[in-house]
């Protein structure tokens, strides 16, 4: 199954973008979506979701040892988030630029955090930090694994590796403007 998994991983760049609870409460969902739409990336998944504690801990597992980890988990589970999958060549790094530095006071004007936030612990939005994490957070690669190899006994485990979207929640489509965005 490895070649197929590698193909799924390499097929297309995708990133997981999430409007955090402060962004939802402050009415910034449309503003955040709008910035990615206007840039020209393709939206492939979108939902409002109350994040359970175990998912928040899994999503931020690399930060488990940090002193701010408990506060971060409380923040992310404090209200609904908006989960998004965006696709396009170079989307992971570009989205990080559109979002801006982790500390909103250091983030450049023109970025989401630079324009809309003042504190690291209330920085409005998440974006995957690498193509591998984009795949892990969205979950499409694991979908492909499930579809092609019917690992029935392992399916629960694999589904758990796909963090934010379930099978059927990612929509493959071709925007009518595609030819006006890329030559
Ligand atoms: N965070 C925090 N205090 C810190 C560093 C990070 O509260 O000193 C929070 C902040 O919400 C940040 C998230 O933890 O967005 C994840 O941290 P990371 O270093 O991955 O930053 P990001 O990738 O979101 O820019
Ligand atoms: Mg990060």
Automatic annotation (TrEMBL):
Keyword ATP-binding part of the UniProt annotation: yes
Alphabetical GO biological process terms: CTP biosynthetic process; GTP biosynthetic process; response to hydrogen peroxide; UTP biosynthetic process
Active-site residues annotated for this sequence: 126
Family assignment from sequence similarity: Belongs to the NDK family.
Organism this protein belongs to: Ficus carica
Annotated catalysed reactions: a ribonucleoside 5'-diphosphate + ATP = a ribonucleoside 5'-triphosphate + ADP; a 2'-deoxyribonucleoside 5'-diphosphate + ATP = a 2'-deoxyribonucleoside 5'-triphosphate + ADP
Domain of life: Eukaryota
Protein name, per record: Nucleoside diphosphate kinase
């Amino acid at each position: 199954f490895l070649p197929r998994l590698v193909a799924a991983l390499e097929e297309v760049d995708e990133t997981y973008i999430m409007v955090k609870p402060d962004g939802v409460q402050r009415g910034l969902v449309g503003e955040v979506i709008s910035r990615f739409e206007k840039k020209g990336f393709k939206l492939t998944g979108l939902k409002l979701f109350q994040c359970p504690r175990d998912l928040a801990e899994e999503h931020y597992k690399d930060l488990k040892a940090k002193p701010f980890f408990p506060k971060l988990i409380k923040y992310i589970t404090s209200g609904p988030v908006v989960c998004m999958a965006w696709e396009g060549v170079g989307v992971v790094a570009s989205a990080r630029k559109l979002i801006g530095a982790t500390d909103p006071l250091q983030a450049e004007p023109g970025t989401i955090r630079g324009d809309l936030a003042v504190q690291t612990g209330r920085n409005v939005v998440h974006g995957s930090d690498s193509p591998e994490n984009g795949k892990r957070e969205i979950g499409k690669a694991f979908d492909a694994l499930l579809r092609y190899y019917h690992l029935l006994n392992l399916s629960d485990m694999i589904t758990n590796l796909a963090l934010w979207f379930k099978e059927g929640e990612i929509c493959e489509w071709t925007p009518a403007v595609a030819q006006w965005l890329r030559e």
